[in-house]
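Could someone model geranylgeranyl diphosphate with this protein?
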Amino acid sequence: MAFDQTYAAYVDSVEQALELYLPLPRDAWPETGIPSALAEAMRYSLLAGGKRLRPVLLLASHDMLLNEEASVLPFAAAVEMIHTYSLIHDDLPAMDNDDLRRGRPTSHKAFGEAAAILAGDALLNLAYEVMARSRHPRAIEALAVIAGAAGSSGMIAGQSADIWMESRTPDAGMLAYIHRHKTADLISAPVVAGMILAGADERLVERGREYGLRLGLAFQIVDDLLDEMGDEEKMGKRLRKDRSAGKLTWPGIYGMEGAKQEARAQINLALEALAPFGEKADFLTALAQNSLTRVV
Ligand code: GRG
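Reply:
Sure, complex below.
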């Protein structure tokens, strides 16, 4: 199957899984104990599209080793729930103060700040519940990897450093730290989790981790570049905010050409990491190559 078709098939599976695990809309409460406004806000952000990159990576890396997609759908759904919670909270006035996300008003614009905070909290908790209830024999190991990547030594560490560095003297070491944790950790974790769930040995899992981290770094550099040169309508979010907010970005420190070069270099390293998988890695190879096409 061609890359685009395979990607679309994974996204289909993800959308079905999300629908399965999300609380029902409007009339859910009081029957299920979930207030209808909370269910609505959770659905609003989670079912708003998005590339579904993280769950696709989980399904694809698992598929590469074992053809049992149904058993890992809870993990794919969970990683997208965690990502969506992070976007909802990142958009809040206390953080990036954004009014547009995935082509529609951000959660706090649509529902108010308190509801947006709670919808994010609820998605985060639902993610862990769904993984813990999966009955997959390797659930705890995969859950621990995802929790570590999302938590205080992963994405939240990166987000904290990002905020702390605003308007401080630009620093290349801090930039690398922020990109690694804010973005790359939650891109690498689904690759690692997908492989662990498939029963891969530690040597292969390590290659998956390396692929995910390199892809994640390139992804964030591309995101920085698109913030400078992208199209708001196509991307469904506000652009050209990083510089004015005093954010540390790759083009800000290394210039546009330097950033493009580094994105290419990271993708080459990502591709090298896939060598032991041979042809089985065709999809992950194409995904990494395609991730540069919008900027390079
Ligand atoms: C609030 C704890 C907390 C963390 C926030 C995700 C994040 C960390 C911040 C969002 C801002 C940002 C630029 C993050 C870098 C990662 C990134 C590019 C997120 C957007 O992910 P995409 O492009 O979005 O995969 P879609 O909508 O396609 O899922």
